[in-house]
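3.2 Worked example (two chains)
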Amino acid sequence: MPLFNVYPLYDVTPVSGKGVYVYDEKGTEYLDLYGGHAVISIGHAHTDYVDAVASQVAKLGFYSNAVQNPLQVELADKLETLSGCKDYELFLCNSGAEANENALKLASFKTGKSRVVAFKNGFHGRTSAAVAATDNANIIAPINAQQKVTILELNDIEGVKAELEKGDVCAVIVEFIQGVGGLDEGSAQFFESVDALCKANNTMFIADEVQSGYGRSGKFFAFQHYNVTPDVISIAKGMGNGFPIGGILIHPNIEAKFGMLGTTFGGNHLACAAGLSVLNVIEKNNLMDNVNTMSNYFLKLAKTIPQIKKIKGRGLMLGLEFDFEVGELRKKLIYNHHIFTGGAANKKLLRILPPLTLRKDHINMFFEALIEALSEVEQPVNAS
């Protein structure tokens, strides 16, 4: 049967990967600066990761959450140590959308309220409440639109204050660095004021770290660049290096009850083995230090390219903004220079989300290719 045609596809067929490279069926090597939407955190086919997953699947790939699974406890302890999120509790699921869905559900349980405040250009997933909190009418079906969501401009602290004081908001959900929306960030004053307003109005503050977490911003979580304490932290993409796994870190002010949340596949043995391997590699190879070093080097070179009008993001979650739409530029990079990059809702933005193992020679390769690719695309004469 045919596949349901919902993805516009590039004519590239990766069949294998190693480190920051993927290879197609003809053996062509591509530099992967997108990591499949920031999923590949420790590099393709990392030997420690492959060994951990292979060893676990040879023993026990899955059993349900009706039995003890010490791997979940080990993963939670390692996550607490590396993230610095002391005293939070972990609930495991399968994806970022599911993580945000459970975060919003917990907020509603805790507060007894149902309305959500989210922000323009935010993206939180494609399931029920998560997609309703996403600022994209094209992916919100009528069944999703029944959710009570108010979308405000980022940095509109007076708007947040007015909505929370109405008394019916269960949660404010925010990406500290917007992903799909285009790498925009709120100010420190905004985030810290939202945190305070949530605490004053019996509203849960949800940090969507699905894309920005796991060291990608230069700290383990992007919210750690600010003086805030989220009630729930959602995680997924870089968590399993390609294996489907997600979760939420839950502040102790939210009490667990049997049956409150549940999942069949979430936290299965194979997912935990993958997740533990990622954390172990991040720690062993000092990848968060590498993120900051490579980010500084990347930014230094980016500032030498006159066509780049603005650089957005932090760490290895970066956006290069031009004064023209970058669709054709991305095609040139893929087909002529064999480099994967990402797009965004902001059509003038090139997204850079490489594995955290990126090196300076990879960055040099990218900028050499970018300069050539820019000469190959037709750019507007008087763009503004």
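3.2.1 Second chain
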Amino acid sequence: MNSRYPPVSLIGAPTDIGAGHRGASMGPEALRIAGIGAALSSRGVDVIDRGDIVGPRNPWLPPVDGYRHLNEVLAWNRAVMDALSDEFRAGRLPILLGGDHCLAIGSLSAVARHCRETGKKLRVLWLDAHSDFNTHEVTPSGNIHGMPVACACGLGPDVLTGLGGHVPAMRPDQIRQIGIRSVDPPEKRLIKQYGLDVYDMRYIDEVGMKRTMEAALDGVDADTHLHVSFDVDFLDPSIAPGVGTTVPGGPNYREAQLVMEMIADSGRMGSLDIMELNPALDSHNRTAELAVDLVESLFGKSTLMRD
């Protein structure tokens, strides 16, 4: 087995409970059909598929006090947090197969708690078209998949901000957001107020992806747990149509590969989310296959041998 990477556990979270479109609940199975387990095994990684987390169905109701499906979102995220925490305790690298991005509240809570318990530094790379730094006061929709970063930083309902037993679960200076190109106006003010480190597409256009990733990974060392939260809408919709919240002007295939290869080069990734894949909006599972291709690069696939 590939000793560079710890053993990996695949964990499905088949829900669209926090989203504005139905269909992300089918994402885990689409990733399995695209061969994510076999792809990692072929790279020498020890892979176990833990199956799917079970949670409440999506009632598809309007928002209440600014939140859609808060109780159901809480149940799913508690289950996600517990599942990832079990893998950390077992010395395994969890890959959360989403599901919509509200589930990152659970994964970030688990990762942050793991870092507190082990004395590791936390660095989160948030690969997304959106900052997901909304609150119930400013959200235009009430969809909680637009709030996970805010919740992790202590902005949100107590049941979500305190999920991992520590408020806030993480500080804004522990996250780097890459590929951002759609931010609601009130959200922009919150991002500036809290000093979130955002590498938006204009920044990437100006300095290039290599310098962007060097900046985002600066300070990551042997004492760092690197968590990657990969929303498939990070990618340009011309190559990844299977998402409910497409935003034109995202990273192209080579830029996305470089992101993944530089993360792999760091050797510090300790957990991964793959979120918002919506097969109902895809074409012949093309987006899932691309996601699997990129995940292979996260685990060391490259054109040439690089030391």
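3.3 Remarks
The mean pLDDT is 96.
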